[in-house]
Design a protein that fits this description.
- The chain is mainly beta and 136 residues long.
- The chain is 5% helix and 34% strand.
- The strands form three sheets. A five-stranded mixed sheet has the order 8-9-4-3-10. A three-stranded antiparallel sheet has the order 1-2-5, with no helix packed on it. Strands 6-7 form a two-stranded antiparallel sheet.
- 29% of the residues are buried.
- It binds zinc ion (2 copies).
- One zinc ion binds next to α1.
């Protein structure tokens, strides 16, 4: 079991069972959400995910193009959000309070990374989403 929380501690959640590996997304929207070069996320199925606190106080942004971000209303940390396709939560890996046991499986949307973004590690770097052309 893995637990996570936001910066102020109002939002808490736990994940039972297996998650996906961690994907590092370098797209322009993830830069806005995270404020940094890339956004580390994993997926947890609805069955494995449980809010412990703070779910009723989330700020849920949804852009007209369907892309969104959920945040803690008190501290502004990005928090897990329902994947637009449903069936899973999209979980910011930085919220996890212990080692989830999974590692970075690859870098996506490297084709639109910031000019100052230097990617470390040996993971595959993909031009767009998972399954797209490798650039390294
Ligand atoms: Zn918070
Ligand atoms: Zn992204």
């Amino acid at each position: 079991m893995t637990r996570g929380s936001c910066l102020c501690g109002a939002v808490k959640f736990e994940i039972d069972g297996q998650t996906t590996d961690i994907g590092m997304c370098h797209c322009s929207k993830c830069r806005k959400v995270s404020g940094v070069a890339s956004n580390a996320n994993l997926m947890a199925s609805l069955d494995n995910f449980k809010w412990i606190s703070g779910e009723s106080e989330l700020t849920k942004l949804e852009r007209p193009d369907g892309w969104g971000a959920w945040r803690c209303s008190a501290c502004g940390s990005p928090v897990p959000m329902l994947h637009p396709g449903g069936g899973a939560y999209f979980v910011p890996a930085g919220l996890l309070d212990a080692d989830p046991g999974v590692r970075i499986t690859g870098h996506i949307f490297v084709g639109s990374k910031a000019p100052w973004d230097e990617i470390a590690g040996d993971g595959p770097q993909l031009r767009d989403g998972f399954g797209s052309e490798k650039t390294n």
